[in-house]
Amino acid sequence: MVNSAEASLTAEEIVPTHWYNVLSDLTGVEDAAKLRQARPEGREGGGTVTPQIPLSMYRQSMGQERFVEIPQPVREEYLRWRPTPLHRARRLERLLDTPARIYYKYEGTNTTGSHKLNTALAQAYYYKQAGITSLTTGTGAGQWGSALAVACRIFGLECTVYMCRVSYEQKPYRRIMMEMNGAKVISSPNENSEAGRAALARDPNTDGSLSIANAEAFEHARQVERCNLSVGSGENHVLLHQTVIGQEAVRQFRAIGDFPDVVIGSVGAGSNFSGITLPFFHEKVREGLETRFVAVEPEACPKLTKGRYAWDYNDYTGITPMTKMYTLGHTFVSPGIHAGGLRYHGAAPLVSAMYHQKLIEAVAYPQRPVFEAGLTFANEEGIIPAPESAHAIRGAIEEALLAKKEGREKAILFNLSGHGLLDLSAYQQFLSGNMTDMGASDELIASSLGRLPAMDEPGAAAR
Ligand SMILES: *Cc1c(COP(=O)(O)O)cnc(C)c1O
């Protein structure tokens, strides 16, 4: 924790009783957000498989109600490891010789090691209430799958996880974690699903992608009774659940009498970024502050900085409904970087809409500078960051160096979304000098953008 002022707050006082719904503070994005589940008019195909979300959870995340009460059984689970600590990175500040104050919120302290358990618990609870007996999902690096496996065990649901092949092979420990919690884990793509066979036919050596894994999970959910598909990011309700992170941080900052000038998070689809930033966005709106928000993505999957704001599918085969979002195209398969959790082709509709309105900024970094930042952080602060989180660290270091150049004091907050203790083989590769930057080429991006569904806006032709 940062100092004694904060220590005087109890866990009960810091952990929020409600989630914060950003829709209540936005104008002009409601339509994009509400069309999350819809098939735009005049579209062929798509929308045959809709994400199956309990009505209670759906309403909360589409409504204008500013605060949604956290069910007591979920909050009790949160209190087992929340509030998560807000630390000041003093050694890193000294190393960079910066006038900036660098803070980080550490989400790696729970059993699964990342922020994803915040939504997994809420989802498992609501699905159980709705009479569902098993959940299935796709997972990239395995953080989401392990979070869902734990949450399913806690609330008494069965769990089947389709895990991207590149992670299934590179990160067997997360698979074991899921299996320890009673989940069944399948390497994706696999021959036993239509979506898997199609992906393998295109490229038998594919690394897999979250998009393919989700398509396989969709199929599974369709075939198994009382089984629903649960997703770990992107959807409004997921962003809603993650706001416990930022709300705690707001309280922790108030307690020490400081406030961030810039808030930074890495972006897979946008849940940890939203979790840390949205409550600060609420403070900014309420108090007329100048706070900036920076989303950091890998150059291997630059959906915000190089994607297009368009209607697209959420999965590789196009069986999901379309969403208006920043996307590289649903057939985009990111180079196999170690930050597997950032390889999804699109950004959450809410994050996309806010980016489109210039309420948030975005930057992209290549893999090596990200790992360099991760290693520096581990050396100075004593926590080995997940490669995904190291993107936010790179962003924070750049902001701190800018402050130094401009001779300006400022407070920087980033979300350390998870630990990297199961990512040591990636750090080993970095240390050995064999790591490459793996940016996505303009050709690769152009070709997948070329396969976007034809029409950009529903009713665009009529305008
Ligand atoms: C999954 C993951 C991310 C990226 O996903 P978001 O939904 O964008 O937050 C970032 N960091 C860690 C540690 C993750 O597990």
In short:
The chain is of the alpha/beta class and 463 residues long.
Main β-sheet, in a few words? 6 strands, mixed
What is the third-level CATH name, the topology of the domain at 74-112 and 235-449? Rossmann fold
Whole-number mean pLDDT: 91
Shape: globular
Supply Rg. Answer: 21 Å
Bound molecules: pyridoxal-5'-phosphate
Structural account:
Keywords: Amino-acid biosynthesis, Aromatic amino acid biosynthesis, Lyase, Pyridoxal phosphate, Tryptophan biosynthesis. Belongs to the TrpB family. Tetramer of two alpha and two beta chains. The beta subunit is responsible for the synthesis of L-tryptophan from indole and L-serine. It comes from Streptomyces angustmyceticus. With 463 residues, the chain is of the alpha/beta class. The chain has a domain at 74-112 and 235-449: Rossmann fold, CATH 3.40.50. The chain has 20 helices and 14 strands. It has helices at 4-7, 11-14, 30-34, 55-62, 72-78, 90-96, 117-129, 143-155, 165-170, 172-180, 194-202, 210-223, 236-256, 271-287, 303-306, 349-356, 367-381, 387-406, 424-432, 442-449; strands spanning 18-20, 67-69, 86-88, 101-106, 134-139, 158-164, 184-188, 227-229, 262-266, 292-298, 308-313, 322-327, 361-365, 411-416. The strands form four sheets. The protein has a six-stranded mixed β-sheet, sandwiched between helices. The chain has a four-stranded parallel β-sheet with strand order 7-6-5-8, with helices on both faces. The protein has a two-stranded antiparallel sheet with strand order 1-2. α8 (143-155) links the parallel β5 and β6 (158-164). α4 (55-62) packs across α13 (236-256), α5 (72-78) runs antiparallel to α7 (117-129) and α6 (90-96) packs across α17 (367-381). The termini are far apart. The model is unreliable at 40-45 and 458-463 (pLDDT under 50). The structure holds pyridoxal-5'-phosphate (PLP). Pyridoxal-5'-phosphate (PLP) binds next to α8, α14 and α18.
